[in-house]
Structure formats: structure tokens, C-alpha cells
Design brief:
Its main location: secreted. Keywords: Disulfide bond, Hormone, Secreted, Signal. One of its GO terms (biological process) is response to nutrient levels. One of its GO terms (molecular function) is hormone activity. There is one protein chain. The protein has 226 residues and is an all-alpha fold. It has 2 domains: 3-35, no CATH class; 41-220, Growth Hormone, Chain: A, CATH 1.20.1250.10. The chain is built from 8 helices and no strands. The radius of gyration is 21 Å and the shape is elongated. The model is unreliable at 1-26 (pLDDT under 50).
Length: 226
Amino acid sequence: MSRSLKQVAVLLVALLCLDPHGRVGSAPICAHGPSGCHVPSLADLFDRVIQHSARMHSLSNDLHSEFEQYFLPSKNHIGKIYRKCHTSNILTPNGKENAQKLAREELTEVILKLLMAWRDPLFQLHQSMADQQDFNSFSSNKALEMGDMAHELRKGVEKVAEKMRVLGMLGNSVTGLSAAEAMLPLSESGEAMSDYELLYCFRRDSNKVQNYLKILKCRIVPEHDC
């Protein structure tokens, strides 16, 4: 077979591997060339976002611990931190049992709202840490990495939601944040939240996201590790 014919054959196989509707959630993986195309299952997509959320929460834990150890003057100061997070206006289920009672659409919407609400605050956190000499570049880069991970996780959850819609498991009622909900957080005094307050709140919310994803997966694909 000539070289040009081989190229045409490879192209045809690649096209056959593509999703005919161009859906993001069901896009195939061709890690080993066109002949190895594999469309990830819903369980696969859930596993990916859950693993990603676990890494993100672990990173937030690390940075939060570093902050407490090196930058807070005393443990007494920790108790005085303003702890009403800017995401408190997003209604989230308290505890596993309440989360399990939410409809799939509602739980998916809560996850997406939490992730969207952290887009600008995490960028603000990185900028603040980068501008302060007290923080080393390693800690500042961790803050930047958390922002990137939250962005990628949101895109991953959107793919999961799209896959669920394609399979008829999810309606089209899932909505994002309003303009007010996406605003940068302020404390009760009207001042911008401190770096530590942002870290405290993000650690809390990243843990919620991780747990909600696990609960949602168990409701959708209960035969997998539930």
C-alpha cells in the first residue's frame, strides 16, 4: 500500500472513533492510535473527577497547614478568624444523608456552583501570596495550582453531567452561578477576606465537592465501590 493510501486509511479509522455528535462528555480516548479508541464510560469519568478532587483537597490541606504553621502568630489568632465563607449563600446539604436525598440535578448543580464560586477568589489568593515577601514562590505556586485544578475539575464535572444527559440520567435544569454569587468574597466589615480565610473556606468546600462527587457516583453507578 502506498504512503498516501495508508494515511487515508488511518484518517478513516480515526473518524470512525470520533463521537458523531461531537459531545464533550463522550469523546473517545485514542491513547494507542486510532485502532485503540476507547469511549470512557460514565464510571470512568466519575473516577477521574473524584481522583482529581482528592488531589485538589489534599493540596488545599497542605497549604492551609503551612499557613497555620508559619504565618499565624499564635493558635489564639486562629479562633478569631472570620469564618463565614463567601459560598455560604450556596445551599449545600449538611451530611451524607441529606446529600443522598437531593435529586441528581440538585447535587450536580451544587458541585458546579461551588467550583465556579472559587474561580476568581483562587486567582486573588495567588496574586496576594505572590505579592507578599513572606510567602515563598513554592507556596504561591500551590495557590496557582489549586486555581488550575478547580478550573479543570469544573470542566470534568461538566463532562460528567453531559454524559448523564446523553444517557437520560440528568435533565437540562442544571444552572450555573448568578453574577452576584460569582463576586469576590468580602467579610462582614466589607473588607476583602484574608488569605487564611480563603484557604480555610476553600479547604472546606473542596472537601464538600469530593464527598458530593462520591455520593453522586454511588447513586448513578452503585455497582462500583459503594
